[in-house]
Amino acid sequence: MLGKPFRGIWGVFTHLDEAASVVAKLREQGKDYSVLAPCPRHELHQAMGEPLSKIPFLTLVFGGLGLFFGYGFPSWTALDWVLPVSQKPTVSIPAFTIIGFELMVLLGGVGTALSIFALGFIDLRRKRLPNSQQFKAQNRFSNDRFGVIVRCEEGEAAAVESMMREHSVEEVVREF
Questions:
Q1: Strands in 14-136 per DSSP E
Q2: Residue closest to 6 by CA, chosen among 125, 165, 141, 155
Q3: Global pTM value
Q4: Has residue 92 been placed in a domain?
Q5: Domains in the chain: how many in total?
Q6: Is the residue at 88 inside a domain?
Q7: Is residue 19 assigned to a domain?
Q8: Is residue 126 part of a domain?
Q9: Containing domain of residue 101, as a range?
Q10: Residues 51-60 as b or e (16 or more Cβ within 10 Å = b)
Q11: Alpha-carbon distance values, 149 to 8, 33, 68, 131 (Å)
């Protein structure tokens, strides 16, 4: 197993601005947190500090790989089975551009989708979510509530809980 079981505190917020304020304070304190929201919100992204993603780099790598194979495979095939046509070159870059472009788009798209699934799975294993029945029964994060999950030890839980209560949290649950 890649990660430890969840130990920490989580809260349910009704208002977006209150959840964003708590997230900004948690980021300033260097806490390990996750945010659950019914839809993407720029306020939460700003409070989280716009974390960098590896996805654009992986898309570039897979697109480059597609371009390499798009030019490489037809060139190798043309050199292996030479079909001389008057004085035209055997390896014709303009003729292979369409194949290179199409494979770049194909491998870039498929590689990006696989990267999103793989990185999401790794992140879920590394940063565990609460496993209690109370959390599993809380289905309002995909409807109308915002969730802030903080991984911390029991000694830090009181400070985190008081910070959440200052920002009108609807419900706070400790899991240790």
A1: 32-36
A2: 125
A3: 0.79
A4: yes
A5: 1
A6: yes
A7: no
A8: no
A9: 55-120
A10: eeeeeeebbe
A11: 8, 5, 43, 12
